[in-house]
Fold:
Amino acid sequence: MKTNWKNWLSKLLQAAVYAGLLGFLLFCALTYISLMGWPPYLQQALWVLGPACLLAVVLVIYLPKRHRKKLALCLLAVAVGCGAYVGHGLWRDSIPTMDDRDLLLWQYEPFAPDTKAASLDEPSTLILSEDALLRLDGATALYPVYAGFVQAVYPQGEYPRYTATEDGYGLVTCSGTVDAYQRLIQGDADVIFAAAPSQEQLDMAAQAGVELHLTPIGREAFVFFVNSKNPVEGLTVEEIQGIYTGQITNWSQLGGKNQSIRPFQRQDNSGSQSALLRLMEGLPLIEPEQEDRVGDMGGIIRDVADYRNYANAIGFSFRFYASEMEANDQIRLLALDDVAPTKETIRDGSYPISDSFYAVTAAPTGQPDPRESDPQLDAFLRWILSEKGQRIIEASGYVGIS
Structure:
C-alpha cells in the first residue's frame, strides 16, 4: 500500500512537471504568434493541438502500456486534423483578396515625386491661403480625386495621409467613408468626399445636432464583378437582388457553371455597402460572409470578410477601384441590364446604377451651409465645379458632374 502511494505520487509529480513545461511552451508559442499577427487559423490549430498534447502526456503516465498505442493514434488523428485545417487556411490565403482599402493610396500623395494624382497643365485659377487651409477627408476610392484638388489649389508642400497633429489627424487624410463621416459630424474635418450618407450616418448627424450639406461634384458607377474565369458576363438588377436576398444561389440559374454563388459584402456604412442597400430597395440582405481576423490587441475577432476571388465569388465596389483591380485580369466587371459600366454609359445615364459623389460639409441643425460663412470653403467648392476642377475629376478616372 505504501509502495502504491509512493508510485502514485511519483506519477503525479511527473505529470505536473511535464504538463507545466508543455503548458509554458504552449503559452509562449501562442503569445508569439499573437504578437506577430500570424493568421488566426494557426492560433486556433495550436489551441487544439497544444491541450491535446498536454492531455496525452498526463494519460501516458497513468495508462497501461497496452493502451498507449490507441492514445498515440488519437493524438495522430488530432495532429492530422489540425494540419488539414492549417492547410485549408494556407490555400484560402493564396486566393487573391480584393478590397478598396488596399488601394495603394501613397501613390497619389499630393506633390510627392512621381505621384499619380491628376494635375493641371497650367496654373490653377485658385490657390488657397496657407493660413486657413481646409481639413479634408473622404472615401478610399475618392482619395485620388481630392489629392488632385490639393495638388492644384493648396500651397506646395508635404501632405502625408498619416501625419499626426494635435488633434490626431493630418490636414489631408483618408480614413474611409465610415470614419470620414464620423469626423465631419464631430467637427474634425471641414469637407469630406464620399458617396451619399447611409441612413445610420444621417441619424448619427441628427443625434449630434448636425445637418449634412451635399454638393454633387462628379458621377461614378456602382459595379459588380466576378472571377475572370466565370463565364457569366452580365446580370440584371433583379438578378443581383435575387443573389443578395438568397433567392438565387447557383450560377447555373444565371447561365453559368453548376457552382454555388458566394456573394461578398462590405462593412456597414461603407460607401459601397450603402450603395448596395439603395440598390436592394428595402429587400432583406442575406447575412454577409464572416472571417476570423486578428484584432488590435492580438485577439481573434469575427468581421465581415473581404472579397476573395474564388471561382464562384461575386463582389461589388465603385468603378474606379474595380477597374484598377480589373487591370490584373483576375476579375471581370459585369454588364447590368446589358449595359457595361463605362465613362460614356455613366455620363449618358444608360448604366442603371450610376450616381453622384459629393463634397460634404456640416453645420449645426438649422444653420446655413458653412460655405456661406467661409469664403475659402465656398471658393474651393466653386473651383471644384469649375472647368479646371472637373478636369481633375475626369483625369482621375471619374466622370464630371457637368
Observations:
- The longest helix spans residues 2-36.
- The radius of gyration is 28 Å.
